[in-house]
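REVIEWER CHECKLIST
Item 1: Sequence provided? yes
Item 2: Single chain? yes
Item 3: Sequence as submitted:
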Amino acid sequence: MGYARVVLLISAVLVVFAQSVKAVEVDARTSQLDSVASLTKPVTLTTRAASLKEILTKVQALTGARMRPSRDIAEDKATIRVKDRPAREVLRELARCFDLCWSEKQGTDGSYLYLWMDKRSLDDMSKRQLDDYLAITKQFDVQMQATAALVASGTEYTLSDQNTSSITMDEYDRLRLREAATVDPQEGAAVMQYMKFTQAQRKDLIAGKHVVVSGSAIASDALGKYSQAQSFDYWVDASLGGYLLKCMMQPDDSEVLLATAVFDDTRYDKIIDAADEVLAKDKTLDKDIATPKAEPAATSPATQKKASGEPASISLGPKSSSVQNPGEGSAATPATMSDGLLEVAETLDMPLVAQYLSEYTGIVAKGEKTAAAASTARKTGDRIAELSKLHKFVVEQDGGFLLAKSLLWHRLRSREVPEATIKLWQREITALTVPTLDVAVQMGSLPWGQFRGVISNEWSWFGSMDLTQLASCEYGLKLDASLSDGQRKAVEAGQAISCKTISDAQRYLFMQAFEQREQPTYDQAKDANWVDDAVFSVEDRVGDYDLYAVAGMRQLGSIDLLAEMENGKKAGLPDASGGEDAQLDYVMGGAVKKLLAALAVKYPDIPSGKITMYMTRNLSFNFSIGENDRNSSMTYSARRR
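Item 4: Structure as written out by the authors:
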């Protein structure tokens, strides 16, 4: 036997040995299931976006075996399709899909099976998160190196002179930042200082820390552009789609955005291709599937054309009273990886366990979101390959189950919002152009990751609603939600609240809003007595002048209140000095009756008692410390009937 053949044989044996060790390790992590006799009972279960807590509750009801997930994974979501399979198999595959462990735990009411994430899994997730961050910082370096070369040579980069017709919006934004750095000496100085970072400073930045360079440590290249520079404070913020490299410069207290980076998830494609090749060799997984239908694009009722023949001030929707419900094909329910795999599993009649991510992979170009392209796959194998590449999943066959594991789970799981909350919001605001104040406050009060998830999924969950306006108001919303009854009455009366009278937690929110960054430096406030001159106020005023009629999850029509106010002048409309709200109240009753009368003709099968009227208002959050002001504003839907 030749040397090469011996090496190949040894390599093959080592691979088989490694795979066997891994299998034993996986079995050891779920072996506790084997000691529970009731888990031999067959179960039939189909869930879409159900939390692990909900799934275990259902299996417990079917088998009688007591089980619970740990608190940190309880709201992670899964999609499952099983028919008459032993519960033990389902629970084992669930653990394998999420890389979890089963063990026995003692509670005050007896023992139970416990599903949890061990240190190995946590370390693996942390490593993936670090790899993400390293990839992002490499993007920063590439951008900054090119910009620094221009700054050093004194060359102004003029974006209007460049051919930008074929570049993405993200690339356009990066070039715009390059232009600013070559024109503004202070921004150019921040770029030059970044290029002098030591390895230790880079590690601190990657670790999420602020990196401050001051005094004699400032590089001569930076001082050549900004001779008055006293310090540069660098940090990285997470944005909706990636990360932002920012810098605060002293002594002028100016904050600048230096570079942006978005995730390049094509780096996972080789892993996905390898998994798809394994599945492709199993011809039992390649069956004909029904011709898929293209998913309709969501359309906003606000953009519908006015119906002909109606009074000029009234606009009615299409003559249809069918109301779609959340989870039943409405615009608020996009096609996800799970939906595609459920179709595949049904065609193959195979059990399925899949991690669920509500993040919708649509087509994004120049900031415009459109419907996803229809599938062209006619075979289940092709459909799996299509879905896995689009949504960045690895699909495997394990013990007769299809397992779907997200390669983005480490990043996107923190953005998941409980499904019950999503469906509640869908029922409340899907037919509106902007959310109600209650829902906006609930969204703003979410952890930052979930808040980003809501905004990223705005189009697929709520139609064409724009929630990006809430991003700048997050801390204002949280501060508003934290007000006591007395503080709220003062705010509603138009009074400003002094920071001397609010709690430490509320002051923290105030400083977060004032500094307008995700990583606030509340404890680094320049003036320890800043609270003495700090006040918070909220201004609430009329938004647009359309009154909307809503029933179910659909907008039925609207009426132009400006036209009604113009007509009202002839009938004694209060003088404008009485305020917009007074004028609106004067015409509101008549406008409601007029719109309801038109809707009764258009939609005779919808009782007037089921129709609710809304109009928009503008809410402005104002934060002041002495002469320095910060403001953020949002539009919300206010119920008028």
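Item 5: Key structural point noted by reviewer: Residues 31-117 form a domain with the Phage tail protein beta-alpha-beta fold fold (CATH 3.55.50.30).
Item 6: Recommendation: ____
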